[in-house]
């Protein structure tokens, strides 16, 4: 169950959007790495293991206080997620607009994009990003659940055997995030024999990536301001009901894969 929880956590919308945005910003670099998901997940795993170890080794009497402090600090993780995704989404959208209208990049956009490139194109930057993202609400809640469950199992069981729970959780998360990074890298590095197809394919992925990052950042802003907005308002309309029950990140990822399949079929038709 812990391994499955790690796999599910890696499919959260913010994980998918962050890895996608980091690779999208780095797609034009020749030394761009497909290991973005791996380094992001390793940073995430560091916080998960540290929090679980803290839960295991502190007394049960103060675990409630530790949980309260973790929830207070979780605001930092959500703020970092919102800022990164919103900035990456806006820059990706502006890049797409520039390609359509053949415009020039403004000086401010060049500076911002350079800073984002410097941060997202390096393993230490992605590791730090995963570290900060792990302070968010979802990770904090799941770590607390893992810690409490493992503490109950500790009675009469070796501590090292109990530590297998967070290790299995992080193993599942690292595997899924790494595969996501490799898949996104493959999508963005796809080359087509026809320049028209190449340009259209790049534009479609650009706007899908920007839409995913901006949509998820807006949902996170609403969640921070008003709580679980979509679930509270799910009775007011079908739109909120649907949004509250789907994974936006997976939805956009499936659209990207669908676009890749369509263009692969079109390339074969052109060759014939």
Would you write up a description of this structure?
The protein is mainly α. 81% of the residues lie in helices and 0% in strands. The chain is built from 13 helices and no strands. Helix 2 packs across helix 9. Residues 229-242 have low confidence and may be disordered.
Give the helices and strands as they follow along the chain: HHHHHHHHHHHHH
Total domains, how many? 1
Distance between the termini: 49 Å
Query: By helix and strand content, what is the structural category?
Result: mainly alpha
Q: Please tally the helical runs, counting DSSP H or I stretches of 4 or more residues.
A: 13
What is the alpha-carbon Rg in Å? Answer: 20 Å
**Main sheet record:** none
**Poorly predicted tracts of residues:** 229-242
By DSSP, the count of extended strands is 0
- Beta-strand percent range: under 5%
Shape: globular
Overall pLDDT, averaged?
Answer: 74
What is the helical fraction, as a range of percent?
over 70%
Give descriptors for this structure.
272 residues, mainly alpha, 13 helices, 81% helix
Write a concise synopsis of the structure shown:
The protein is an all-alpha fold.
């Amino acid at each position: 169950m812990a391994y499955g929880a790690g796999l599910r956590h890696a499919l959260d919308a913010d994980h998918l959007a962050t890895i996608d945005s980091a690779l999208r910003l780095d797609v034009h670099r020749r030394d761009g790495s497909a290991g973005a998901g791996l380094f992001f997940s390793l940073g995430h795993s560091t916080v998960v293991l540290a929090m679980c170890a803290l839960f295991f080794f502190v007394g049960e009497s103060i675990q409630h206080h530790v949980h309260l402090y973790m929830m207070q600090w979780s605001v930092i993780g959500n703020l970092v997620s919102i800022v990164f995704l919103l900035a990456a989404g806006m820059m990706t959208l502006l890049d797409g607009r520039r390609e359509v209208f053949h415009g020039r990049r403004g000086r401010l956009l060049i500076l911002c994009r350079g800073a984002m490139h410097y941060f997202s194109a390096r393993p230490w930057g992605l590791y730090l990003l995963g570290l900060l993202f792990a302070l968010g609400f979802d990770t904090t809640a799941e770590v607390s659940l893992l810690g409490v469950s493992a503490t109950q199992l500790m009675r009469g069981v070796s501590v090292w055997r109990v530590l297998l729970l967070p290790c299995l959780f992080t193993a599942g998360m690292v595997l899924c995030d790494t595969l996501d990074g490799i898949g996104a890298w493959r999508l963005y590095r796809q080359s087509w024999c026809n320049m028209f197809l190449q340009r259209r394919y790049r534009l479609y992925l650009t706007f899908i990536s920007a839409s995913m990052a901006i949509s998820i950042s807006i949902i996170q802003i609403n969640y921070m301001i008003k709580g679980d907005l979509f679930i509270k308002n799910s009775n007011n309309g079908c739109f909120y009901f649907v949004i509250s029950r789907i994974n936006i990140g997976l939805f956009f990822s499936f659209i990207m894969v669908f676009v890749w399949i369509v263009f692969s079929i079109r390339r074969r038709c052109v060759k014939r």
